[in-house]
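lol forgot to send this yesterday, sorry. struct tokens for the thing we talked abt
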């Protein structure tokens, strides 16, 4: 998946020196002193499909269910990008065809609720956000891109005209009330704010008016009435924290207003709406500092 190489860890059984485990980002085992090795992290199901054996060390950002096929599931991941299942999760195939340069992490995706096979997604070569360890000296190398699939995730193509590519893209939201052939879409461009398209992702324009200096736009959600909420996560470093924020827009991201956080909270992480009462909000946060 792009990061594996020579084994960088070995563990020999204390009771049988012929049994050894090796790790290179993947995990292998020998039971005959290294004459033969086998993988111990997945099962090959054939036809390019695999299933986990329970040894998973990565970040899953979400499970996304196809509104047209209950057995079709996609999972957005750190390190392995995107996987999909056609059998309700019994086996999985990689779903990164057409993504180049930013396939390490797929941070989120959205199915079009009215067009079968149409999916928008956001990608980056910069994984593990919003963990603060990622704000390091290599940050200028971070890239990102929104992408579109019209065949249910089998292939993708970039849709990035007018949106910055030199930052991770971490969330995408479709306005379901917009025209089917000209969807309004919002993207969180981490570190730069919010971008909006009114033509299905063909062109993008900045939609960050009212946001503060911290532009770590992370998650965006919409009420049935059309109100948008934006989660901006903390920045800086663990020794010099730049607080996060919550914003609200009632005009389609033409402008944003800052909302108060709970007392003592500087690290909002996600926001969920009550599906019955859109005035009731649930905020997940990092521990108070």
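and heres what i got for the seq, position by position
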């Amino acid at each position: 998946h792009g990061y594996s190489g020579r084994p960088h860890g070995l563990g020999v059984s204390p009771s049988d020196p012929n049994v050894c485990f090796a790790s290179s980002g993947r995990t292998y085992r020998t039971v005959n002193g290294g004459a033969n090795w086998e993988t111990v992290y997945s099962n090959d199901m054939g036809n390019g499909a695999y299933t986990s054996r329970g040894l998973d060390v990565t970040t899953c950002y979400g499970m996304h269910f196809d509104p047209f096929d209950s057995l079709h599931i996609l999972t957005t991941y750190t390190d392995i990008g995107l996987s999909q299942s056609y059998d309700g999760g019994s086996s999985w195939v990689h779903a990164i065809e057409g993504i180049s340069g930013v396939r390490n992490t797929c941070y989120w995706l959205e199915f079009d609720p009215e067009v079968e096979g149409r999916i928008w997604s956001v990608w980056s070569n910069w994984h593990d956000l919003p963990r603060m360890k990622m704000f390091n000296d290599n940050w200028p190398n971070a890239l990102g891109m929104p992408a579109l699939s019209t065949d249910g995730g089998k292939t993708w193509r970039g849709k990035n005209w007018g949106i910055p590519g030199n930052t991770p893209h971490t969330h995408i939201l479709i306005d379901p009330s917009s025209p089917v052939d000209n969807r309004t879409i919002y993207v969180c461009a981490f570190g730069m704010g919010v971008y909006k398209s009114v033509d299905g992702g063909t062109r993008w324009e900045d939609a960050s008016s009212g946001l503060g200096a911290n532009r770590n736009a992370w998650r965006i959600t919409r009420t049935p009435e059309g109100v948008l909420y934006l989660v901006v996560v903390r920045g800086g470093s663990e020794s010099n924290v730049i607080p996060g924020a919550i914003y609200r827009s009632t005009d389609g991201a033409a402008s944003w207003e800052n909302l108060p956080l709970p007392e003592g909270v500087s690290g909002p992480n996600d926001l969920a709406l009550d599906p019955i009462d859109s005035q009731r909000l649930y905020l997940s946060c990092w521990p108070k500092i």
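The mean pLDDT is 92. anyway ping me if u want another try
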